[in-house]
Structures are given as C-alpha cells and as structure tokens.
Amino acid sequence: GLSQYSSDPRTEWDLSTYSTKDHVLEAVRNLRYKGGNTFTGLALTHVLEQNLQPAAGARLEAEKLLILLTDGKSQDDANLAAQTLKNLGIEIFAIGVKNADEAELKQVASEPLELTVYNVLDFPLLSSLVGKLTRVLCTRIKERSNKENTDIPVSTGPQLSPTDLKISAVTSKSMHLSWSPPLRPPKKYRVVYSPAKGGVPKEVLLDGGVSSLQLSNLTSHTEYLVSVFPVYDTVVGDGLRGITSTLPLSSPRSLRVSELSHNSMRLSWKAAQGATQYLVLCSAAPDGADD
Description:
Elements lengths: L1 E3 L5 E4 L7 H9 L10 H12 L13 E6 L7 H10 L3 E7 L4 H7 L4 H4 E4 L9 H17 L16 E6 L6 E6 L7 E8 L6 E6 L4 E4 L7 E9 L8 E6 L7 E6 L7 E5 L21
Parallel strand pairs: 3-4, 4-5
Antiparallel strand pairs: 1-2, 6-7, 7-10, 8-9, 8-11, 11-12, 13-14
C-alpha cells in the first residue's frame, strides 16, 4: 500500500489493490509526485485510520510495518501520531532525504534506531539503501511472526467495532459523546475530533471500559467531525464517525437608548447568557469620526 502526503494525505493504492509484484512496480512507475507542505503527523494518522484497516486489505493476523519517506521537517506533531502507531505494535522505519530532520526521524522511528533510521543526501542515493532495508524488513517480519501471538482478533464487525454513536447535550463550547461497546472490549478508545472545514485534529485516549466522553473548550457555531476507534493489542477496529455543530453564542437583546444629551447617552440591553464582558462600539453616522 502507498500514500503520498503534503497538507492533505492521499492514498495511491491500498494493501489489497494489487496482488503481483509486476502490478506494484507498474503502479510505482506511474506514480506522480505530490508537492506541497510536510504534515507528517497528519499523514501517519491517515495511514492508521485509512490504510491499516481491514477494508483496505490489512489482515489482522499480519505484522504491520510502515516506511516513512520524507525530505523535510514536519509542520505538525509527527511524534504524537507515531507514538500512537507504535503503541499499537506497528513498527515504523524512517527514511530522510535532503532536508529531513534527523532528530525527528529518530523520534518517529521504532527501536532499535540503527535498523530503522536512514538518511541520504539526495533521492538517487536511495538506491543504495534498497538491499540493506530489504534484508532488515524481512528479518524483522520473521522475528515478529515467530513470537507467540495469542488471542489475536480474527474478524471485524460487532466483535471489534463499537456502534450507535450518540452526540447530545450540545452547547456553544461542548458536547457529550456516547456509544455502545463492541462484543470484545478494547484496550483503549481513541477519540479524534476536528472542525469540519479544516483545523488541527485533537485526540483523547480513553480506557477500554469507558464508553462516553465530554468534549469541552470547543469553538462556538462550528461543525465538528468526531471519530471513535477501538484499540486492541494488535489492531485498531473499525471506527464510528459523526458530525454535529456547536451552538452559536447567545446575543444581547433589546438594545435601548435613553438619557440623551448634547454629548452623552445611556444604553441598556437584556443580558446574554454566559457573557463575562461586553464590547461596546460607537461612531458618528453615517461615516463620521473615529470609533
């Protein structure tokens, strides 16, 4: 499977798209470079939520390895996203080219770093890594596959996936989430939420025995996308998704003007619920002096 990223990650093909080496190599030859920014954290989250799902061809019993290829320093928090993947048993190899930040590569990659971090001065030099990287990847897969894996989930659906996401008690700055847990309790839940029209995603990790969450400190009058993912020892189950808007802030009402004189007036209004201060602006009409 392969995804490219800049400010918006894009899946080029899934794990299940091609079934022969020739088809994969042909897809690589036809690949077109995607220029732009370097939001590595967003790209890693995309891989977890989109590319490493059963619907995209990820087999639950298979070892999960991810190779990150980057030529720059991330413009978001790559370390937090990488840690989430590593906590799920996904091994990360980090390859830097040209202006990549080696310290960031070492933060993102799995241990031992002498096997998982590589850095070259230019793209043509990547060919020098192919032989070593191939041997290391194959060896790691064999080592991990030989470990005893007990109680590995073998199916999705109700066994691994929560259902019935409900969003309630919506205010201008908060909302309450609740859901029905899957038949097989997860180790944790990962709740991701962000404004629908763009914004930095935030996430909360919950214990697997909890099936509700209060989201606070939200922006008023804003549509939010919410996702809930069950996290197991070796896999992330299918997520629940919802969308809803926070309420607008309440407004002051019934503005009245009284006690007029040659240089003053009194204003009064009905209070806005929850307001802690008011900003009053006035200017001469229609376009007179300064405010």
